[in-house]
Design a protein that fits this description.
- By secondary structure, the protein is mainly alpha-helical.
- Helices cover 77% and strands 0% of the residues.
- Helix 2 packs across helix 3.
- The longest helix is centred in the first third of the chain and has 23 residues.
């Protein structure tokens, strides 16, 4: 855990709201993007990430400072995502939101020809559709490694599983995606 996180958590535990706000500011974007990757809807991801911070605040007294803050936070966020997914199917606008995010992320991009863009859009749509069908443990590994670019060690810490399990899950998740996307890759 960083010295900054340690200091912010210590002050937050003492009721210093400014410190907790800084902690939220530091982690709100990664929390939102992870939730978005796991639940597939911007509004739901925003609500879940906000709820995760509320739960963190309420449970800061349970936090063990020997652990990394984000690993502890991730468990809360992940559990909220799992509970949310149990209660509904992933909405169709998930794919549209992902496409919009990709197109709007860098307005200086030069856009390819419409036929190329359409092909890329279809491939992206199929990829996210197949990711959405994966079991949660595979989906979270794919999102954390490939879309949030966490290291194997960081994922191992966040999920509290051995690094070998991270590599195994990632291997099986990639294999399943590859098998399900054979027609697109040909």
């Amino acid at each position: 855990m960083t010295d900054e996180d340690r200091d912010l958590i210590s002050k937050s535990k003492k009721g210093k709201m400014k410190a907790f706000r800084r902690l939220v500011e530091k982690y709100k974007r990664p929390a939102f993007l992870i939730a978005l990757g796991l639940v597939g809807n911007r509004d739901d991801a925003y609500d879940i990430s906000q709820e995760a911070f509320i739960r963190v605040y309420r449970n800061l007294h349970n936090f063990n400072p020997r652990h990394k803050f984000f690993s502890w936070f991730y468990v809360i966020l992940s559990n909220l995502c799992k509970n949310h997914l149990r209660g509904r199917q992933v909405r169709e606008n998930y794919l549209e939101d992902q496409r919009r995010s990709a197109v709007c992320s860098n307005p200086k991009d030069t856009y390819p020809r419409p036929d190329v863009l359409l092909e890329q859009d279809e491939t992206s749509r199929r990829l996210w559709e197949e990711i959405g069908k994966l079991p949660f443990e595979f989906k979270e590994i794919i999102v954390l490694r490939h879309f949030r670019e966490f290291s194997y060690k960081e994922i191992s810490d966040m999920l509290n599983i051995p690094m070998g399990s991270v590599m195994s899950r990632l291997y099986h998740a990639r294999k399943k995606l590859k098998d399900n996307l054979k027609d697109v890759m040909e």
